[in-house]
Model the fold of this input.
Amino acid sequence: MPEPTAAPALAATRPAPAARPRRPRAETVAAYGLLAPNFGLLAVFVLVPLAGALLVSLQRTNGFGDGEFIGLGNYTRLVQDPVFWQALATTAGFTVVVTALSMALGLGLAVLMNSVLPARGLFRSVLILPMAVSGVATALIGVLVFDQNNGILDKLITAVGLPSVNWQSEPVPAFATIVLVTIWWRTGFNMLIYLAGLQGIGPDLHEAARLDGANAWQRFRHVTLPLLGPSSFFLVVLNVIYSFQVFDIVFVLTGGGPRNATNVLVTYAYDTGFVTRDQGYAAALGMVLLLLAAVFAVVQWRASRTRDLVE
Amino acid sequence: MTGRLARLGLAVVAALVIIAPLYWMVVVAFSSRRELLGGDLRVWPRSFTLENLERVFSSFPVVTWFGNSLAISLVVAVLSVSTSLLAGYAFAHLRFPGSNVLFFVALGTLVLPIQVIMVSLFRIVTGLGLYGTYWAVILPTAASAFGLFLARQFLLGIPRELIEAARIDGASHLRIFRSIVLPLAKPLIAVLFFMSLLQSWNDFAWPLIALRDNALYTLPIGLLYLQGQFGSDYGATMAFALVNVIPMVVVFLAFQRYFVAGLTRSGIK
Done:
């Protein structure tokens, strides 16, 4: 008699073969039951609207009524729209600058908070405090601080003899304000993630590097930084996602001005959809946002897979 | 020794940069209008006054807006904790067809800006008759991808043997969820609850679209409305900003370790 192959042998370890088909089915039913509340909400309020958005993006609309199907009309209009290209460039610039600066600052502060320091807990609490402040309040504090006629920052700048800056009426300073306010708001989060990463690194490696004659910078560059790889990866993903979706700060602080200099894709889409009420075109803008998010998600997914292989 | 002093100096500068704008908000909120118009730089208001707060409370339904914010964020937090826990348990411990695809779909919503779907979401909310009620804000924000992810990560930490043993004893999944998973998940529940409370309390983009009725405004939307009405009356704006900011700052400081635990857990695989 030929011996049974691996598969039946595995099955034989199950106590009651007759009950086998029933149990997985019961487990599947239970699983779908557990998922139902979450995915019910997701389906009605995210997935169906997503399909709806695709349809609306193919229509010319008038207010909130039914639209007229115009194929790719909104998309050809998009390609010829200079405001769209400007918003795309601003979004990309904002995402790169904010991600780089807030991560570098977060890393520096995490190293500082991981060192011997009096009142470390207090400092840490202060640095993460902006996380509790709403985006609208943050932006309004920004309005107050950066007011170009009566703001506290301008007074400080002129008090030390520097020329005053037109924070609201000139494009580059206006862009700088949304960057600075966002960095103020977000850096604490990056610090916290990096701090957790740092605390996971044992002292042995540093000790070994020190014995080999590595100085502080070399130890940071060749021991700490590589070991923080997973934290850095996670933070790049989250910072890109959040910067790319920046809305509260821009909407309240600059309203996208002056002359669209701070208009990003999400504020442009909002204005188009709910201020000028050009819903079809707004939906097409949304589809571009979706495409960008999807491309980023795929790139990040592949990067994380190669990471796992390397590590 | 000098290294230590330099580090302390850096930490103080960083803390000042974070605190200064918040401190300035408080100073402006309690400075009289005249003093603010005078425009001198002061570290503390010469005439400490409550007139800004009084003006805000008498001109706007601040108490109603506060109540709206509280009601909406509490309901969102409860719903989001419940849905995340149930789904997180399924993804962590049950085997079923489509689990990978479904998990990927749920996580995918994390990268989806609300502006992608706002137009058609608005139509659906209106079509369901939710527009003009709290539910217009609550239901679309109650399923949290981040919460689901966090719940799954945490619940993977419960030993599979424990659940298998209960299965062999004949316990149903709902029973296991209630008597094994829930008691072990208390720290997770705290993290999820405070995170979604904070997020919902501060939420802006969708409530801005979904709440057109003044009486239903939450604090962030009310804050924007007030700024539109009062323009450059910084005293009033900052006084009201304090009403929005202080409750969550207090909650945040009191339950900081939960936030910190939740965030750092999400970063570590």
